Amino acid sequence: MASTNQSPAYLKAQGKFFSANTDEERLEALEGMIKECPKHKSSENMLANLKTRYKKLKVKITKVKKSGKSSFRGIKKEDMQIAIIGFANSGKSSLLSDLTNAQPKISEMQFTTKKPIIGMMNHETINMQIIENPAIESEYYDKGLTNTADTIIMLVENSEQINKIKEKLKKTKAEKIVAFNKTDKLNELQKRKLSATLQSKKYNFVLISTKTKENIEQLKEKIFQTFDKIRVYTKEPGKEKSPRPIIMKQNSTVKDVAEKILKGFSEKVKETKIWGPSSKFPGQKIGLKHKIKDLDIVEFKTR
Ligand SMILES: Nc1nc2c(ncn2[C@@H]2O[C@H](COP(=O)(O)OP(=O)(O)OP(=O)(O)O)[C@@H](O)[C@H]2O)c(=O)[nH]1
Ligand SMILES: [Mg+2]
Asked: Between vectors from CA 136 to CA 87 and to CA 181, what angle results, nearest 5°?
């Protein structure tokens, strides 16, 4: 992956590969790299490597598609899937439209949503799939969908609803966030009391209002936090950090980051420097075993 004598078009494709978050994006970037890779003798090996990687990734993507875990036909399970669950009229569609690009019908009538609705949320350049599950007390509610979700937003407008929803979620291993909606109807004292109660029950909660948009951003960050993932920016010496972070598991090392960029890449790395939460000082030189933290910036020097 050393970038000597590569054309700007190739480097651009490589840049996309570096900052890709899904296999689909990686595949697309690889396609670009193959196209832009010089077709002469000295780059034969490199081209062959790229092609092998492309084929393997393609096989992997096809397999994942075929296994399609969700019970709801047509919903492809993304890396990070979140389901909004709640009683009729709690504001599920309103929330979905605040968090994502979806435009569901919102109405004071009950049971407006009769089918799961999918939206894509972009939070700090990361895409997460959010699905509104129809009202939990209705025949339209999709149990399978709740079971495949990684994170569940329990959307409620009063405390009793929390217990009722919990009853139905006994089997799910998903992370849960209690989003208490319509808090525009409460005064400051009521909100403080409510917070204290939810705190004492140890819920991961947030008081929101889709009407005033209060705490919608906090909810987005909370959703991301449930995934136990960390964001890492990469950079090349003398350049700006990548525009989009790479998503890594907790406890990953600098070597893991290099290998996520491209298998075998860590062996080509001559020097690494780090900025951000895991560094003792900006630009600290570190080894490949160094553990990264959320929002670090890692610089790889290859020659
Ligand atoms: N005051 C207030 N009203 C809200 C808020 N969020 C939603 N509503 C209202 O609540 C009603 C129901 O909203 P929806 O978003 O359609 O609720 P839903 O949970 O999707 O309802 P169903 O799809 O029928 O189950 C609408 O009249 C919304 O305008 C809020 O934060 N404050
Ligand atoms: Mg709805």
From this structure: 30
**Which amino acid residue places its CA nearest to atom 16 of ligand 1?**
106
Pocket of ligand 1 (CB under 6 A): 86, 88-94, 106-108, 110-113, 135, 181-182, 184-185, 209-211
- Residue-wise pLDDT tens digits, 51-96: 999 999 998 877 766 654 444 444 566 678 999 999 999 999 999 9
Q: pLDDT confidence of 25, banded at 50, 70, 90?
A: confident
Count of CB atoms situated within 10 Å of the CB of 80: 23
Distance 106 CA to ligand 2 centre (A): 6
Sign for the CA dihedral angle at 142, 147, 149, 155 comes to positive
Give the chain's domains with CATH numbers.
1-69 (1.20.58), 81-225 (3.40.50.300), 229-303 (3.10.20.30)
Hey, CA dihedral for 18, 23, 27, 29, is it positive or negative? negative
Burial class (CB in 10 A: 0-12, 13-18, 19+), 87: buried
